[in-house]
Amino acid sequence: MKLLVLIILCVHNIVVGVSQKINKKLSITQNTGKFQSSGTIEMKAPDLNDEEFHSSHMPDHLKCDSCRAISYQMQEYLSKRESQISAVKEGKAMLTESEYTDALEKCCAQSWERHGVIDVGNVKRLSGPGLETEDFTGVKMLSGPWPGRLFKMCQAYLGEFTEDDIYMEYRNNRDYLEDFLCYGENGACTKHTTFQAGFKDEM
């Protein structure tokens, strides 16, 4: 009789332990992605078309995200350079032309290795620092054509606006350089573009 009770208790403990592990696994799954009825997460790499894969230029539908990513990086590089010079940091001076030109050129010349494309709700979006898509759970396609395209776009902005224009706009509105670069006349983003929860663009 005692042996039967011990066997029943062992079987019960095993069943409870397995159940707890399954529930924990499902909880983690639900918190890290889109939970499917099958109990799995559907995450796939973006399916690129010919233009997205082969073109040397950034596809039009990714230019707004790209511009916003570039403007964020320009702010970061200019801010870091200002923080290295006491008089500028204390608000007693501004960067010299050679200093802000150097900061912007280094910005464009960076590796851009943290930027790539991700599929968000069946819409391809650029993901990286400064973008709301950076922390989205999914398969991000890094490297490939994206660093070169971002470098070219960044260089194009330096040619279109000049380093003087960009630094003056940064000084006037440090947190929103993208307003000047991306939402101005002929900018990559329109003034009606918004980035809602769920990362859907509404035009």
Q: Counting H and I runs of at least 4 residues, what is the number of helices? A: 7
Overall pLDDT score = 78
Q: How many strand units?
A: 5
- SSE order: HHHHHEEEHHEE
Portion in beta strands: 5-15%
Considering DSSP H and I runs of 4 or more, what fraction of the residues is helical?
40-55%
Tell me the radius of gyration. Answer: 25 Å
* Unreliable spans: 2-41, 196-203
Instruction: Outline the biggest β-sheet.
Output: 3 strands, antiparallel
Order of adjacent strands in the largest pleated sheet: 2-1-3
- Give the N-to-C terminal Cα separation: 74 Å
What structural class is derived from the secondary structure elements? mainly alpha
Shape: elongated
Structural commentary:
This protein is mostly helical and 203 residues long. The protein is built from seven helices and five strands. The chain has helices spanning 2-31, 50-54, 63-83, 86-89, 97-109, 146-172, 177-182, and strands at 116-120, 123-127, 141-142, 194-195, 201-202. α3 packs across α5.
Comma- or semicolon-separated keywords:
mainly alpha, 7 helices, three-stranded antiparallel beta sheet, 203 residues, 52% helix, two-stranded antiparallel sheet
Layout of helices and strands:
Layout: H1 2-31, H2 50-54, H3 63-83, H4 86-89, H5 97-109, E1 116-120, E2 123-127, E3 141-142, H6 146-172, H7 177-182, E4 194-195, E5 201-202
Antiparallel strand pairs: 1-2, 1-3, 4-5
Helix pairs in contact: 3-5, 3-6, 5-6
